Amino acid sequence: MRVKHVMTPKEKVITVNEDQTRQQAARLLSEHNISGLPVVNHEQIVVGIVTEFDVIAKKGRLVRDIMTRGIISVTSETDLEEVRRILISERIRRLLVIDQGRLVGIISRSDLIKEVAKHYVCPICGELMHMPDPPRECLRCGTQENATEPELVAPGF
Q1: Which of 22, 53, 98, 124 has CA 20 to 30 A from 62's CA?
Q2: pLDDT at 155 (0 to 100)
Q3: Are residues 87 and 67 in the same domain?
Q4: For residue 65, what are the domain limits?
Q5: pLDDT tens digits for 23-52?
Q6: For residues 104 and 97, what is the distance between their CA atoms, to the nearest angstrom?
Q7: Mean pLDDT (the chain, rounded)
Q8: How confident is the model at residue 154 (pLDDT cuts 50, 70, 90)?
Q9: Strand partners, 128
Q10: Strand pairing partners for 51?
Q11: Does one domain contain both 108 and 136?
Q12: CB neighbours (10 Å) of residue 44?
């Protein structure tokens, strides 16, 4: 499965401009109950990320003074296994999804958790099913009694 299937698209991503104040970034984080914001310049090119840590640990008045510049990003075609590996090895919470310097979305640990929660396996035939709610019956063998169990390990994880 690819990033494009589970990421939050750019239309729903809250960003902050590098010229906004630290307090404005803190307000956005607080109001939207999120822990990080992509930082863009006036041309809407991604120039960094500002996190809760940046706001409370770094000194500066503007977002450009406190943001993290060395961002790690992926493309919408990146495999979810690679995303998982990066999030774990880099000990970060989110990855920006970038195409030619422009933000196309964001993918976070919680997006991966939601994806794992959608996998079910039939205890009779072993069919793997990906759906938001537990299926009432197996799509392959049709069994209805104890039709599915949560998959212990999602494919690719």
Answers
A1: 98
A2: 47
A3: yes
A4: 3-114
A5: 999 999 999 999 999 999 999 899 999 999
A6: 6
A7: 90
A8: very low
A9: 121
A10: 36
A11: no
A12: 12
